[in-house]
Amino acid sequence: MKAGIIGLPSVGKTTIFNVLTHGQAAAGPAAGRRAEPNVGIVKVPDARLDFLSSKFNPEKTTYATVEFVDVQGLVRGKGQDMALAPVRTVDALVHVVRVFQDDSVPHSEGAIDSERDKRNLDYELMLADIASIEKRMDRLEKDLKKIKNAALEKEFAYLQRAKAWLESEKPLREMEVSDDERKLVKGFAFLSEKPMIYVENIGEDQLDRLRHPDAHPALRPNTKKTNICGKLEAEMSELPTEELKTFLSDYCLTESGAERLIRTTYKLLGLISFFTVGEEECRAWTITRGTNAQNAAGVIHTDLADHFIRAEVFHYEDFVKFGTMQALKEKGLLRLEGKDYPVKDGDIMTIRHSG
Q1: Which residues contact 61 (CB under 8 A, 6 or more apart)?
Q2: Residue 270: is its pLDDT beyond 80?
Q3: In the 8-state DSSP scheme, what is residue 168?
Q4: What's the mean pLDDT in 277-297?
Q5: In Å, what is the CA distance from 110 to each residue of 10, 77, 105, 117, 124?
Q6: 342 beta partners
Q7: What is the mean pLDDT of the chain?
Q8: pLDDT(257) > 90
C-alpha cells in the first residue's frame, strides 16, 4: 500500500513523515524548494502477528508495510503538476493540516484555519484534474471526428460528467462511478478521486483532541480524519519501547500517532490482514475486505492462485482461545475452504495447490 503526504508549507508535513518513517528528512526552511519527494517504508504494527510469532518461533517475522511519499509544500495558486506527480500513483492521500499555533513559524495563509486549508488544497487537486480532463477530451474529440468508437464515446461521456462535477466544486471522490467507468479512466490517476485522510497537526496545548477523536464535524464521503501532535510524536519516536509505553500512558493514550494513522488508512481503504504461519516465517498480508481465497492466495504468489485447490483456514481468535492446531481440529475450527470463500480479517491460511 502506498500513501502520499501533501499539505501547504509550514504545516509540519515532513515532521510527521519523519515520525512515521523514523527518517531524517530536512523540514521547514532547511528543505528549500526540493524537487524530489521523501520516500519511506513503514512497518504496520500488529499485535496478532507478534503473538503468532511468539507461538511458532519462526526464522523470520514479516509485517505488512505502507510506503509514504512526502512531496514539497504546495503553494496555493501556483502550478502543481510537478509537485503532485509523485502522488498520482498512491492509493490514498494524507493531507497534513496545521492546527497548532506558533508565532515563530508564520502560516502561508496568515491565520490558522484548518477548514479553509482543507478546502483550498482540495481546489488545487480539482484544478489539476480539470486540466487533465480537458487535455484528454480535446484528443478524444479529434479521434471521434475520424472514427466512430463506442468505448471512446463512453470515455468522453464520463469525462464530461466528471468535468461538470469538478466545476461544481466537488472532488471526484464524492462522485458515484460505475465499475465500467472506473476501468475506462483508471490510467488517469485523478488526484481528487483518491480517498483522503486529513491529519490535523495539533499543538501540545490541544492534546484533549486525541482523547476525544470523534468530536468533529461530519466527514465528507471517502474521507477520514485523525489528530497527531507532530512535536510530541517527534520526541516519542526517539524513546525505547518500554519508555514509549509509559510516555503514552502519561498522556492517557494507547497508541502512537503513527499507529493511529495506519489504522485509519486501513479503515478508509477497506483493508484487512490475513496471516501465514510456520517455522520458516510468520507473515501478515494485506487485502481488500471481501477478497476471495483464490485471489488472496495470489497476493502470496501468482502460482498459488493459478494452481489453487483449497485453503486450510482457522481464525486468530480461535487459536488464541484454544492454543493448538490439534484443539482447533477437534473443535471443527480448522476448515477447508474453496476458492470463493471471502477471507476475513485475522484468518490464518495455508494454501493447498497443484504443481
Answers
A1: 49, 50, 53, 281, 282, 283
A2: yes
A3: T
A4: 96
A5: 11, 15, 10, 11, 18
A6: 292
A7: 90
A8: no
The set of cell numbers assigned to 245 is: 509505553
DSSP string, 14-38: HHHHHHHHT-----GGGG-S-SSPE
275: β partners: 284, 348
Tell whether the torsion through CA atoms of 229, 231, 236 and 238 is positive or negative: positive
Q: Per the structure block, which three cell numbers stand in for 118?
A: 482543507
Q: What is this structure's pTM?
A: 0.89
Write down the residue that cell numbers 486468530 correspond to.
316
Q: What's the pLDDT band for 32 if we cut at 50, 70, 90?
A: low
Taken as a whole, the chain contains a residue count of 355
Predicted local confidence at residue 310, as pLDDT: 96
Nearest to 335 by CA among 344, 197, 279, 271: 344
Round to whole Å and give the CA distance between 119 and 263: 24
Q: How far is CA 47 from CA 167, 191, 273, in A?
A: 45, 34, 12
Q: How far is CA 265 from the centre of its chain?
A: 4
